[in-house]
Amino acid sequence: MIDVFDKFNFTGAQVPRFESVREEFPRELESSVSFPADTFKPPEIKESPTVRLGNRRAAPQTPQPEPKVERETSFSRQRRHPDEPGQFAVALVIIYRTLGQLLPEHYDPDHRSLRLPNRPVINTPVVSAMVYSEGTPLPSSLQRPVSVKFALLETEERSKPVCVFWNHSLDIGGTGGWSAKGCELLSRNRTHVTCQCSHSTSCAVLMDISRREHGEVLPLKIITYAALSLSLVALLVAFVLLSLVRTLRSNLHSIHKNLIGALFFSQLIFLVGINQTENP
C-alpha cells in the first residue's frame, strides 16, 4: 500500500486505509501502520545556558529585527508555494501473509530485551513500513515511534504476545533474527494486537502455543474420550445382542440394529478425527 503525505499539513495517518478499499481482501491481512502527527517535525534542539546568556547580553546592544523578518518572510514564502520540493512524503507499507513462517527461527540472544516463549511462533502477518522524503527514506531508527495494528492468524490457543522486528544486524546465521528492542505491546483483544515500534522495518508479533489460554481443557478432554468410549462399548454390546438372539429377529429389530451400527461408526469417526484438523 502506498500513500502520499503533505508534510506541512500532516495531522497523522493510517496506512492502509481499509475503509476506502472496495475490493475483497483476506481478513487476516487487516493490519495497518499509524503515523503520529509529529512524524515529520524536526527534533527540538535545546540551547545551552551559555548560549542563552550570551544572547541576552548581546540583545540590548545590537538589536537585529531584520534577520527575524527575513526568517518570517522565508517561512511565509515556503507556505505560499505548496509545490516546492520537499513538501510531500511517500509512505510504503507491505503486508506479508506467510513471511513469518518462511524466515529462519533466529532470535535475539539477549534475554533482557527478548523473553522468548516456550513454543514461539509468528502469529501475525509481517508488516514492513518505509517513508520516503524527496527520494530518501527516513532512518530506520525513528525519532517518534509508530503504532502497528496486527490481525492475528490464529485466535485460539495463543498466548504471551511479544512485539518483535527483524534485526538484520544480529550475527545469527548471517541473516539476522527477531528482536524486541524498541518495540512494546500497547493492547490486545481476541483478534488484534497493537504494538509501538521505533523501527521502520519488518515487524510482527511472536506468541506462545498454549492449549490452556482460554481455560483448562484437560478435564474436558478426559470427559469427551471417556463418554465416547463408554458409548461405543454400549452400542457394540447392543449390536451383538440383536445379531445373536434369534427370538429378537424381526423387521423392527433389524431397523434398531442398523441404527446402532450407524451411531457406532459415526461416533468412532468423530473420536478418531477430533485432532485431525490440519487439512481444512
TrEMBL record:
Database matches in Pfam families: 7tm_2, GPS
Entry keyword set: Disulfide bond, Membrane, Transmembrane, Transmembrane helix
A GO biological process this protein is involved in?
A: adenylate cyclase-activating G protein-coupled receptor signaling pathway
Please verify whether the record's keywords include Transmembrane helix.
yes
Q: Where are the transmembrane segments?
A: 222-245, 257-274
Can you supply one Gene Ontology CC term for this chain's record? Answer: plasma membrane
At the top level, the lineage of the source is Eukaryota
Topology versus the membrane, per the UniProt entry?
Multi-pass membrane protein
Localization terms from the record: Membrane
Location of the region described as Disordered in the Swiss-Prot/TrEMBL record: 27-82
Single GO MF annotation? G protein-coupled receptor activity
Q: Which residues form the GAIN-B domain?
A: 49-213
- What is this protein identified as? GAIN-B domain-containing protein
Organism expressing this protein natively: Myodes glareolus (Bank vole)
